[in-house]
Amino acid sequence: MIRFLVLRTAGIIGVLLAVTAATYVIFYVFPADPARMACGKPCTPESLAQAREFLGVDQPLWVQYLEFLKGLVAGRTFGDGGGAIVCAAPCLGYSVQHHQPVTTLIAQTFPVTVSIAAGAAVLWLLTGVAAGTVSALRRGRLPDRAVMTTAMVGVSMPSYLVGLLAILFFGFTLDVVPVGSYVPLTENPVDWAFHLITPWCVLALLNAAIYARLTRSQLLETLGEDFVRTARAKGLRERTVVVRHALRTALVPVVTVFGLDLGALLGGAVITERVFSMYGLGALLIDAVGHTDLPVITGVTILAAAFVVVANLVVDLAYRALDPRV
Amino acid sequence: MAVLDPHHLQATTGAWRQLRGDRWALMGAALVAGFVLLAVLAPLLTALSHTDPYTYDIEALDAAGVPMGMFGGVSGAHWLGVEPQTGRDLFAILVYGARTSLLVGLGATAVSVVAGTVVGVVAGYTGGFADMLLSRFTDLMLAFPSLIFMIALGAIVPSSFPKALFIVLVIGAFGWPSVARVVRGLTLTLRTRDFVLAARAIGAPTSRILRAEIWPNLASSVTVLATMAVPGAITAEAALSFLGIGVTPPTPSWGRTIANAVSWIQVDPWYLLAPGAALFLLTLGFNMLGDGLRDAYDPRVSGSRG
User: Fold this and answer.
1) pTM of the prediction?
2) Which residues form the ABC transmembrane type-1 domain (chain A) (predicted)?
3) What SS3 string covers chain B?
């Protein structure tokens, strides 16, 4: 287990290095000049050179990248003398547009996006697996057909469309849930959940349908296997057979798919926060794209990649816990 | 020759028969055909309705910019009502938006299917180190937060570069991994089949083996994969436009219209109906058709995840 963790952590660091390097090359080789943006209008050659030096973009690309990595681990200082700005580790750069370190900006917006993503993921896994199990056990009957039809419709329904309909119906017509605005978890956990319940349901709905379909087919397959027959022959209760033996095995591929869906989950959260007018990572990024605020753009993309890579480790651990063969 | 294998031919006619009996798949095909017709005939249809997706019609709005009349301003002049604030015709936006959706969706699918097939065949056929490297890369890309990267890439594309082409390329560039994974698996099993081994034994060049032995056996699966990839690409385009970074306005896009509807949802909920229903029905159509094709042609391609 320890060997596995060490190996995986080393692998993660390797992947993250590759991703940051690739991101850096992609976004800084192209002609968009972050210093020109920082310099503002009117931009004299002197102030442009000054801005270049301040941001460190006057140096060769590889030096910039090493500086970036150094900042990530140990923090760095932009400029010197009176105008110097200290950017504490983990420093992802400095946004001239916001006059703030990128890390601070992300720390303000990331919780919003993660709150949406995490809650939705929990909800979709629970309901998806439950619905899939029910429909597998009641194959061909009403619950099964209802789940399969919902899955087909759900797959084709973009989450923002569902979101808008939910806002219209539950938010305005019935007026039972709040529309928009985000309350931090640390401020009031109940309000936090209350404001997020609609986004969670909206984002979870589609994926729950897909997972129901997957769970159903996997469970049907497993229920026909020898070890399930053995378990039944041993005289175990049907409940134990289904949950402890069949479902556990059937969930292994579901977990694998979940690992692959983490990137899409983050994307879904970005769309959902927009529908519900919450200022999260996506809004920060879209803003930055509009202003060619490169430090923010690279910071957000690197963070998103890191989130997926690290979350995948968690998925892998779950995988090992589920599958007795690994 | 694999293509003329009588067994294969029989399988194909069997698949046709099954597809013709699959009501869901036929409904899907009808929906897709309907939207293709709308898109192709867009200029003709708007000529009939005497509208276009660009002209403002302030006459159709009240002082607050809300469409006058029932159901979001439905009238003889505006069959599906008008856009709030501008009064642009929603029917024209719908049919021209179908062009955007289909062009970007099919274009991006073509990019990702070609790239995915090449990567998958190379990985599966060569095996060894190249396979390991390509497979790891595919897995990494598969779990990647692609939407965030697509948004970010919008910052560095020169404004002179055609936006629609850019959208096609980014969606395609992030769509290939799922194709590559399946194609690799299929190639891996094909590589050890007798007819491939026989071709290698008589010294056929690799290019010939790939073209004459491997590809004909992959073709039906790739067709199924392509059909199942289209709805994902269409939704991706709509999502990008929804986030305000899709095709440049005023080119109509359902995603952008849906995004505009967000701020009008309380006063003019009808605004959402036409673009929302169109996007849903087109995606549903492709999904139903893809599922049907998969069941009929290729039960091996599993995991229909739009």
Assistant:
1) 0.83
2) 110-319
3) CCCCCHHHHHHHHHHHHHHHHCHHHHHHHHHHHHHHHHHHCHHHHHHHHCCCCCCCCHHHECCCCCECCHHHCCCCCCCCCECCCCCCEHHHHHHHHHHHHHHHHHHHHHHHHHHHHHHHHHHHHHCHHHHHHHHHHHHHHHCCCHHHHHHHHCCCCCCCCCHHHHHHHHHHHHHHHHHHHHHHHHHHHHCCCHHHHHHHHCCCCHHHHHHHHHHHHHHHHHHHHHHHHHHHHHHHHHHHHHCCCCCCCCCCCHHHHHHHHHHHCCCCCHHHHHHHHHHHHHHHHHHHHHHHHHHHHCCCCCCCCC
CA distance B152 to B132: 29
In angstroms, the separation between the Cα of residue A50 and the nearest Cα of chain B is 23
pLDDT in tens, B189-223: 888 888 988 988 998 888 888 888 889 888 888 98
Q: For residue range B82-101, what is the model confidence (pLDDT) as tens digits? A: 777 776 888 888 889 899 99
Q: Report CB contact under 8 Å: A282, B151.
A: yes
Confidence of residue B180 (pLDDT cuts 50, 70, 90): very high
User: Smallest Cβ distance to A301: which of B143, B148, B306?
Assistant: B148
Contact A271 B142 (CB under 8 A): no
Please name the residue ranges forming H helices in chain A: 2-29, 34-39, 45-55, 61-74, 102-137, 142-155, 159-166, 189-223, 226-233, 238-240, 248-275, 281-290, 294-322
Distance from CA of B28 to the nearest CA of A (A): 11
CATH T-level topology, domain A103-322: MetI-like fold (1.10.3720)
Residue B31, in any domain of the structure: yes
CATH of the domain at B136: 1.10.3720.10
Q: Which of B179, B220, B212 is nearest to B195 (CA)?
A: B212
Query: Is B122 inside a domain boundary?
Result: yes
Interface test with A, best of B136, B146, B150, B151 (most A CBs within 10 A): B151
What gap in Å lies between CA A286 and CA B150, rounded to an integer? 11
d(CA A36, CA A49): 9
Report if residue B69 sits inside a domain.
no
ipTM over 0.90: no
**Distance between CA atoms of B191 and B178, rounded to whole angstroms?**
20
Q: What's the rounded Cα separation, in Å, for the pair A320 and A323?
A: 5
Residues facing residue A86 across a β-bridge: A77
**Interface contact A305-B144, CB threshold 8 A:** yes
Burial class (CB within 10 angstroms; exposed 0-12, middle 13-18, buried 19+) of A30: middle
To the nearest whole Å, the CA of B24 is away from the closest chain A CA by 10
**Cβ partners under 8 Å of residue A309, min gap 6:** A12, A15, A16, A19
| Domain, as residue range, for B136 | 21-50+78-297
Tokens of A41: 């209008």
DSSP state of A139: T
The ranges assigned to domains in chain A are 2-92, 103-322
| Cβ-contact B155, B220 below 8 angstroms | no
Indicate yes or no: CB of B284 within 8 angstroms of CB of A294: no
DSSP for A33-73? -HHHHHH-SS--HHHHHHHHHHHTTTS-HHHHHHHHHHHHH
Whether B280 sits inside 8 A of A267 (CB atoms) is no
